[in-house]
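INTERNAL TRANSFER SHEET
From: sequence group
To: structure group
Subject: Adenylate kinase

Please process the attached sequence and return the structure record in the designated field. Keep the field labels unchanged so the import script can parse them.
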Amino acid sequence: MRLILLGPPGAGKGTQAVSIVKKYNIPHISTGDILRKNIKEGTELGNKAKEYMDKGLLVPDELVVAIVKDRLTEEDCIQGFLLDGFPRTVMQADSLDTELNSLKYELDKVINIDVSKEELIDRAVGRRVCKDCGATYHIKFNLPKAEGKCDVCGGELHQRKDDTEETVSKRIEVYLEQTKPLINYYEEKGILINIDGKQDIDKVFQDIVTALGRE
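Return from structure group:
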């Protein structure tokens, strides 16, 4: 099973990714994680990426694609993979297609977790995070047992600076503007599946499994 996972910030991609890779026994490939790993290990690709990042520049598409391709050649990807956080643009998708063809791999499906902008803002603005252990809560959907205190470690809960309505709204707008052509790209290829992300976590996952056709 070779999959791509798409979805705006706050759509619950991380939670669903964990369930998907566990069910289908495939590696979860996050471009952010790969970049950090390559930089930490001082690989040739990692050092090149670090040069751009140290200057505050975005890592060029061709370099990100090269790093992803390098990861896809590892043995654990033979039976499949879940790509998360990549591609982000049609240009990246085209480059990825080229590299997948060279590896004789074909994408099975692209999962798009669809959540309205209003719902995403509501989720983010209501989020509260433990200052000590990082556990997350929500003022509507996931209240702690004691107000303002973490259930796990008793630490103080706070709202992150970037979880304000204005910041979240801008973040979502950027994502939607950037990925709309990408969603159309995979829709035209006939491999896009749209999943209603407003539902309960378990129902979202069940819809993904049903859509993939592999119960």
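Handover comment: The chain has one domain: 2-116+167-212. The longest helix spans residues 165-188.
Transfer complete.
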